[in-house]
Amino acid sequence: MTAVDQPEIELPDAAASAPPREKAMTIGAVTKALEQEFPDISISKIRYLEDQKLLTPRRTPGGYRLYTPSDVARLRTILRLQRDEFLPLRVIRQELAAGRASEPAAVAAAADGRRAARRPSVSVSERGPLYSLEDVLEETRADPALVRELEEYGVIKGENRAGVKYYDETEREIVRAVTELARYGVGGRNLRVFRTSADREAALLQQILAPALRSRNPQRRKEALEALENLAAVTSHLKHLLLVRDLRGIVG
Predict the structure, then answer these.
(1) How far apart are CA 128 and CA 125, in angstroms?
(2) What is the radius of gyration, based on Cα positions, of the chain?
(3) PANTHER family in the record, alphabetically (predicted)?
């Protein structure tokens, strides 16, 4: 076959072969798209997750946030890990860094497996690192007056070391959560009901596991600590379910 007889090869148009650009959504549109699966989703919650460096939407020249489908998928994963596994944000950040956000099926399967194993979301045996008041205020953006109010009502206690007040990781997250509630007018005095409820639940779990927790057998004590963490996760989930039930009665 001569060069004249050779069929022409049609090269694909560059613009046509380029992958379509992902359509971006505003933060309001994202909230509306996810509210059926996550009824408690809000613009302020999404902004909070961005403040925690879990989301990085692009910004328009005017400062508006724009979320790609990938951003929305990542947000959905974060919300599922919070709702279904009660994972703290630092653990979720580690999960995302491991690449789980790009594998929705793997995330769901892993979540189901961990729920079956009742993976605890907190450790009752370790307090973790301590944070100064300045660190807590910087990371949570809390009002210093609010922190003082939380101490006054016994919601947090802190620990004095060499004249400096320190808070553990759990207390820091309590401050962060109350800061979010404060946006809706909830103050320290309103949190007595939470503190009273937590005290009663802790007393109940202590009553159930006290003999094993006091055991001199290291293995039995270890098993008791694991059971305590699992029970804490279960009771936390139960409270969530009861709250959702009662709130449905309000809005229904």
Answers:
(1) 9
(2) 24
(3) HTH MERR-TYPE DOMAIN-CONTAINING PROTEIN (PTHR30204:SF89), REDOX-CYCLING DRUG-SENSING TRANSCRIPTIONAL ACTIVATOR SOXR (PTHR30204)
How large is the average pLDDT for residues 194-215?
Answer: 87
C-alpha span between 182 and 143 (Å, rounded): 10
Task: Enter the tokens of residue 10.
Answer: 């049609």
Topology annotation, domain 130-251: Multidrug-efflux Transporter Regulator; Chain: A; Domain 2 (1.10.1660)
Are the beta carbons of 230 and 118 closer than 8 angstroms? Answer: yes
152 contacts: CB under 8 Å, gap ≥ 6 = 188
Looking at the chain, the number of H-run helices and the number of E-run strands are: 11, 5
Best CA proximity match to 142, nearest among 182, 201, 104, 94: 182
* Domain 27-116 CATH (choose: 3.40.980.10, 3.40.50.1400, 1.10.1660.10, 1.10.10.410): 1.10.1660.10
Tens-place pLDDT, residues 96-152: 887 754 444 444 544 444 444 333 344 565 667 888 999 899 888 889 999 999 998
